[in-house]
Design brief:
The protein has 390 residues and is mostly helical. Among the domains are: 8-90, no CATH class; 197-290, Cyclin A, domain 1 (Orthogonal Bundle); 299-389, Cyclin A, domain 1. It is built from 16 helices and 7 strands.
Length: 390
């Protein structure tokens, strides 16, 4: 009985399993009691060998006395064979003709040399989807995978959602027994999705964030940032003594300013369920405790939104930005509300570009009184004139 070990091939790497010589001798002594001295010597010599699978047919045919596809190698030869395998794998990454770099063309399923253009392999397996889509709607319909994880949901979108409509996959109505079963499943699914008070808190807060962001027309990245800020506040135990709505509103306000699409406190308070004073107080507390890097609101960031709602041209937008830049040079913006300055700049730019608009229209869009617009309007024009004279 010789010590024969099997070899398995995985990812072009050879894994050898060889027992020690002493272990084989002990096993042979116990099992081969009636063996002769010659056979014992032969077995001890054979135990120092390892039978491995031949990688090619030429190697298997060249072996003497071995079975097909196997050969005997000494333990010292295993390291040499492993090194040869690694060298072969490295050689496969270069062109066999010129030794240049090899690139993979996934579109045509070919492996091509980047230097000489030699096609090394072709008809490779396409690991992409087997269907084609020409728009986002068709892609969503044909896709068979779930949505990516998101911080805007308390479970990051990894749970199951059961539709509220009692219909099957073909649009047919369910029977009464099936409707009762689905109702029980929905009830238990909601209970399992929020296992403790922390998850219930997070679920309510993220729902508020999504509602307010939708009402304010904020993009998806702002919702993600607001959700991350709220999660940090919850992890650092900043919520006791404060309402969930107040902290969620302050997170939306901070995220909008950090993303460069700020909203005024008055706009935030209109869609929130808490008063403006509480939003401002909670925002200062959250920004201080979490060390949020929120820059002061720039009046120029409000110009595109105001101009779009007033249907002004690009020339008026550029002129409004120029007025605000001149005001910054003169220090007029210091201590002034950025919303009021932006509204006055939009109104002044509309007049300078001969576009029809009124103070009442700008006041309604910016939620700023007409008196404030007139005062900032005169200050902007004075700064413009002083720069022109200088």
């Amino acid at each position: 009985m010789w010590a024969v070990c099997r070899v398995r091939e995985r990812d072009s790497e050879l894994f050898l399993y060889s027992p020690s010589v002493e272990a084989v001798r002990t096993a042979l002594t116990r099992t081969c009691v009636h063996g002769t001295a010659h056979s014992s010597i032969l077995m001890s010599e054979k135990s120092t060998y390892t039978r491995v699978n031949a990688r090619t047919r030429d190697e298997s045919e060249g072996d003497d006395g071995g079975s097909a596809g196997q050969r005997w190698v000494r333990p010292g030869e295993e390291t040499e064979q492993t090194e040869q395998t690694e060298e072969t794998a490295d050689e496969e990454l270069v062109c066999p003709e010129c030794g240049g770099n090899v690139v993979t063309d996934d579109e045509h399923g070919e492996t091509v040399c980047a230097d000489c253009g030699l096609v090394i392999t072709e008809d490779s397996v396409d690991r992409g989807p087997e269907w084609r889509a020409f728009d986002s709607k068709e892609k969503d319909q044909k896709s068979r995978v779930g949505a990516p994880t998101t911080n805007t949901m308390h479970d990051k979108g990894l749970s199951t959602n059961i539709d509220w409509r009692d219909r099957d996959a073909y649009g047919n109505s369910l029977s009464s027994n099936q409707r009762q079963k689905m109702q029980r499943l929905r009830k238990w699914n909601e209970r399992f999705r929020t296992r403790d008070s922390k998850e219930r808190n997070l679920k309510q807060a993220l729902g508020e964030i999504d509602r307010m962001a939708s009402a304010l027309g904020l993009p998806e990245n702002v919702r993600e940032t607001a959700s991350v800020i709220y999660r940090r506040a919850l992890d650092e135990d900043l919520l006791p003594g404060r309402s969930i709505e107040g902290v969620a509103t302050s997170c939306v306000y901070a995220a909008a300013r950090m993303a460069g699409v700020p909203r005024s406190l008055d706009e935030i308070a209109e869609v929130s369920r808490v008063p403006k004073s509480e939003v401002a107080r909670t925002y200062r507390y959250i920004a201080r405790e979490l060390s949020l890097e929120v820059k002061p609101a720039d009046p120029e960031q409000y110009v595109p939104r105001f101009a779009s709602e007033l249907d002004l041209s690009e020339e008026a937008k550029l002129r409004a930005r120029q007025l605000l830049q001149n005001a910054k040079e003169k220090g007029v913006h210091s201590g002034k509300s950025p919303v009021g300055l932006a509204a006055a700049a939009v109104y002044a730019a509309a007049l300078l570009t001969n576009e029809k608009t009124t103070q009442a229209a700008v006041s309604e869009v910016a939620d700023i009184s007409e008196v404030t617009i007139r005062n900032r309007y005169h200050e902007l024009l004075e700064a413009e004139e002083s720069i022109g004279v200088a």
